[in-house]
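User: Let's play a game. I give you a shape written as tokens, and you guess the letters that built it. Ready? Here's round one.
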């Protein structure tokens, strides 16, 4: 027997539909850094990022100039469609990395995050500070209930970022993601809005 995709849920949506689209994507301050929406002029930084071997390894892609343009151009539509949101992370006025809600489910009050930092900007804790700031906005303004992230169990640097940003390890998803060298087990980390209210350490 087939079931309609539109059968109503008995649970009230955690975040009402339209809540995200009704907002203007903000700039977010993170200490001396600024998280701002992507701009067409950021294409060289995006191309450089996806040419970096470490970013290629963990994000499993490279990017041409045209692909970087399309990637940047897609973010406003994803915001309006309430499926995702991306920010360029600026340090001293230059693009140093990115942080995003790569997947959003307002009905469940849930988002999954992604981040990377350009090689020349590493070692300054840019990723955990940007991640913590975006997560705080997700709870305080968007009113999400849960923000989670996954990374390969052998990606030690990403694990440190998650822990410094207050994302607790919840477990291992076995053979969950396919990388260039095969299937990887993935660590699942998460923060809840109640963690934020209780003052969970961000490292």
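Assistant: Ready! My guess for every position:
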């Amino acid at each position: 027997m087939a079931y309609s995709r539109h059968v109503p849920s008995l649970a009230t949506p955690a975040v009402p539909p339209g809540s995200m689209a009704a907002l203007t994507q903000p700039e977010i301050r993170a200490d001396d850094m600024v998280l701002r929406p992507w701009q067409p002029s950021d294409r060289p930084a995006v191309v450089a990022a996806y040419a970096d071997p470490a970013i290629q390894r963990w994000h499993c892609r490279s990017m041409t100039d045209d692909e970087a343009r399309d990637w940047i151009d897609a973010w406003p539509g994803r915001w309006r469609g309430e499926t995702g949101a991306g920010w360029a992370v600026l340090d001293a006025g230059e693009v140093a990395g990115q942080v995003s809600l790569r997947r959003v489910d307002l009905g469940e009050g849930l988002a999954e995050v992604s981040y990377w930092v350009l090689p020349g900007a590493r070692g300054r804790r840019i990723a955990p500070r940007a991640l913590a700031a975006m997560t705080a906005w997700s709870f305080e303004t968007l009113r999400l209930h849960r923000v989670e992230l996954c990374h390969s169990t052998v990606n030690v640097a990403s694990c440190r970022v998650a822990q410094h940003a207050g994302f607790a390890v919840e477990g291992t998803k076995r053979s969950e993601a396919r990388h260039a060298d095969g299937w990887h087990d993935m660590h699942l980390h998460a923060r809840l809005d109640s963690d934020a209210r209780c003052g969970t350490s961000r490292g």
